[in-house]
Amino acid sequence: MKEKKYEKLDDQTLAVSQDVSELSNDSTRRYLRQIFNFRAKSVTTIYETRYGSSSSSSTSPTLSERSFSEIDGKGALHDAFDKLVELGGNPDLLEEPEHNGPRKKKQTLKID
């Protein structure tokens, strides 16, 4: 498996792409792309299989969409949130207040 590629689509949206092809002798390639939309609180997963050579290939994509509340284990959401902030995004906060990433907290000055 190759490294994941991260792309900030806008302040609220992160795309994560990865070639998940197994080592094989055929020319089939498999790609996984997840799009985390923090405004819509949803993740879209696209799994694509490409058959044949690049000059004469056909594709077979599968698409699914889930709301953040449907996702078991929030690790992937936290990772996507952190990565989007790292890339300069400004995503809406996650509902779990204990994790809202490396975003700098606003400092308030208390005057007595």
Brief overview:
With 112 residues, this protein is mainly beta. The chain contains one helix and five strands, in the order βββββα.
Q: Show unreliable segments.
A: 103-112
> Sheet bearing the most strands, described?
5 strands, antiparallel
Estimate the strand proportion: 35-45%
Could you tell me the number of beta strands?
A: 5
- Into how many domains do the coordinates divide? 1
Question: End-to-end distance, in Å?
Answer: 57 Å
Q: How do the SSEs run, as a string of H and E? A: EEEEEH
How do the strands of the widest beta sheet line up side by side?
1-2-3-4-5
- Mean pLDDT across residues: 80
- Estimated structural class: mainly beta
What helical percentage do the residues reach? 10-25%
Instruction: Give Rg in angstroms.
Output: 18 Å
Helix count from the secondary structure assignment: 1
Coarse shape:
elongated
Describe this structure in words.
It is a single chain. The chain has 1 helix and 5 strands, in the order E-E-E-E-E-H. It is mainly beta and 112 residues long. The chain has one domain (5-86). The protein has one helix spanning 75-86, and strands at residues 5-10, 13-19, 29-37, 42-51, 58-67. The N and C termini lie far apart (57 Å). It has a 5-stranded antiparallel β-sheet, with helices on one face. The model is unreliable at 103-112 (pLDDT under 50).
